Amino acid sequence: MRNEAMTEGNLFKFDYFKCLRSDYAKNECTICIDLCPEEAMVFDRKKLTLDTERCTACAACVGSCPTEALASEVFDPNRFSLEFASQQKPLISCKENVPCLSALSSEHFIAIALRKEGGVECDLSHCAECSVNKDGKVLASIEASIAEANRFLEMFGFERLVSMRHEAQENAPDAGRRMLFKKLANAVKEAGEEDGMRELIHLNDEKQPLKRILLKNALKKVSESFPKETTREAAFSFVVGKKIDAISCNNCQECAMFCPTDALSILKDNTGILFQMGKCIACGICNDVCQPRSITDDNSFDLVDFAFDRMQILVKHRLEICEECKVAFSYHGGEKVCDRCKEFKENFSDLFTMAKDLE
Description:
Shape: elongated
Strand content: 15-25%
Number of helices: 13
Distance between the termini: 63 Å
Number of strands: 17
Helix content: 25-40%
Largest sheet: 3 strands, antiparallel
Structural class: alpha+beta
């Protein structure tokens, strides 16, 4: 079953089980489709799939996927973000150490900046003329990711930012794309012979993207430099706060059941919903599945809550037994009849009308 969901092209993989569209059929995420320069991400019988004939394994879409459903066989952005800190050079370039800077996400750039002493510079001097950058989408995506990473870092007073270089330097190394891919593939092979990536980062949660765990680990390492006030009004593409209206929420718990990363979970006594900002990937599925529209986004972002996976109770209900169906329901006062029974009585009131009353 797992193999049926994995589409493998030339040095590239797409795992449908990790795709947000497999978690919720009505999810409308099109980030990889919009970014792919070869239109290789296509719908086949309403199922998102990889056209291996079109895919050139450029890796431009890898960093964009919130759930890491897209993967390059020659470049692991998580391992790179972890190991780049120990390298002497501060430069990230498609001519030296990455197939495309778009393979890195905002989360990767933040984690790299926090780990790297002496600053980080991204070489964008080749992007404008690159064949991958059709319609300028890839370059715009890279610049947006770096800008978002710097906005995050500046907001909490971190001085380590990611700089961008748009002008080409003379005598810059250029081994050619084929040689670079060979170099990266050998690096991946050597890494695979060492300790596993999962052991390296002490992975303990299969549902979280690895890049999220690496980012939180990087933040924990610098937690002593956190500002005294760690809450900001801010919106980021990779995480969002949540709030639930206790009055309209009917405790159906579907928001937690559909959450792909377990950022939302159910209290043990089934009376409410917990939220961990550090696990949220801002997919919006919880908002979409909530029929009463009780759960919404909250732009209040807390750095400690995010880095240390603090739990927050979004809603807690008082349960009572419905006088009609005898099933527990979220009680908000008044008669002890659940919404389902109230709705049934309203829609089918004629069934309860006595014949004598019709005369």
